[in-house]
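Retro notes, item 3 of 5
We never archived the inputs for the S-adenosylmethionine complex last cycle. Fixing that now. Sequence and ligand:
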Amino acid sequence: MSPERQSHVDLAGLTGDPDTNGPNAARMYDYYLGGSANFAVDRAAAEEQIATLPSVATTARANRAFLGRAVRLCLDLGVNQFLDLGSGVPTVGNVHEIAHQIDPTARIAYVDREPIAVAHARRLLRDEPRVSVTQADLTAPRTVLTAPGVTELLDFTRPVAVLAISVLHFVRDEQDPAAILATYRDACVSGSVLALSHTTIENLAPATVDRGLAIYQRTSTPVIPRPLSAAPALLTGYEVLEPGPVRVTAWRPDVDPDASEPVANTWAAFGILP
Ligand SMILES: C[S@@+](CC[C@H](N)C(=O)[O-])C[C@H]1O[C@@H](n2cnc3c(N)ncnc32)[C@H](O)[C@@H]1O
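Structure as it came back at the time:
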């Protein structure tokens, strides 16, 4: 990817501070995926991260591939309502694109707190009647669950898929990510889904970890990696489907050849509410 590439960030419709003085993790992720909703400061930090951990872009793609497999499995299971927490800057392969190819009646409520991700999403999705975009912090689940974009679109008397894909590593331990997920779980009926993926540092050299985490310390959302062993607490109450929490590339990889990319410092899991 070229660091000189121009961004096409459209600031129209922004609500809140776009946090452009320093790098932003959402926009760095957009850059890893080849998007253009990022600024020079984001690209510089992302390039630094790529130099530190070259697999970071591969991991981002593997994560998006998992997102696609999880959405397709939800639809196979008859779950066609999605609450996408930390949905990010819209790039190719968003939840509604995947879901609507299979079920045009699927409903998707996107939630992100990053103003540029939200402004982009609102502009791209303004003609999509079954999609909403809410600017909110997922760590305030009551606010999310009562937001008009969520209540007016999703029917919580039917199963809902809660997606927490590559986002919980921005939630600090003291914010209690398991308790936050439990609040979303308790709003859902039997047959609902929790699909999540999470950054880990298992198998990385300590010096690489230190340098990589230091780059994210310069953003407003430092990364808190968690090991695979953290998965069960986050999935409390859910029946975890095979193959259980595993490295993201190993989660049902035969469904999607993209998932065979070799390195990914992320684990993934998929649970159903009994
Ligand atoms: C790495 S991106 C993942 C995007 C998408 N879920 C995916 O997997 O492709 C993480 C996103 O989560 C958002 N995010 C981080 N913390 C959040 C929070 N507390 N509430 C809502 N969104 C959050 C960021 O703004 C960013 O857009």
